[in-house]
Write a structure and sequence with these properties.
Elements: E1 10-14, E2 24-29, E3 35-40, E4 43-47, E5 52-59, E6 70-73, E7 79-83, E8 90-96
Antiparallel strand pairs: 1-4, 1-6, 2-3, 2-5, 5-8, 6-7
C-alpha cells in the first residue's frame, strides 16, 4: 500500500490481488445503519469513520473473496483492521476502534 500522507482520516485499501475482484463490493455503516461509504475492489479511499461501525462484504458469485482482503489503516499508516469473506455471498465485520 502506498500510504497517503495527505489523508487526515482513515485509509481504506485493497489492491484486488486476490482472484475475481470484479465480484466484490462492500459498505460501511454506522451503529444506526446509515451507510457512511461504499466501494469495490480495488480501492484506496480516505474517509472519516466513527469509533464503531460495521463493514458489510458482498460477493456476487457466492464463492467468497478469493484471497482479497479489505484493510483499514490509521493516520500513521498502521494496519488497524482487516476483513475478508471466506465463502458465500455476504458477511459482516464489526469494527470497534475504542
Amino acid at each position: 500500500m502506498l500510504f497517503r500522507s495527505e489523508c487526515n482520516g482513515t485509509t481504506i485499501f485493497s489492491d484486488g490481488s486476490g482472484g475475481w475482484p470484479d465480484e466484490i463490493s462492500w459498505t460501511i455503516s454506522n451503529c444506526e445503519g446509515e451507510v457512511i461509504t461504499e466501494g469495490v475492489i480495488p480501492t484506496d479511499q480516505c474517509v472519516e469513520l466513527p469509533e464503531t461501525y460495521t463493514i458489510e462484504m458482498y460477493d456476487s458469485w457466492g464463492d467468497g473473496w478469493n484471497g482479497n482482503i479489505w484493510s483499514l489503516y490509521d493516520q500513521n499508516g498502521n494496519l488497524a483492521a482487516s476483513c475478508t469473506l471466506d465463502t458465500g455471498t455476504q458477511a459482516f465485520c464489526d469494527i470497534n476502534l475504542r
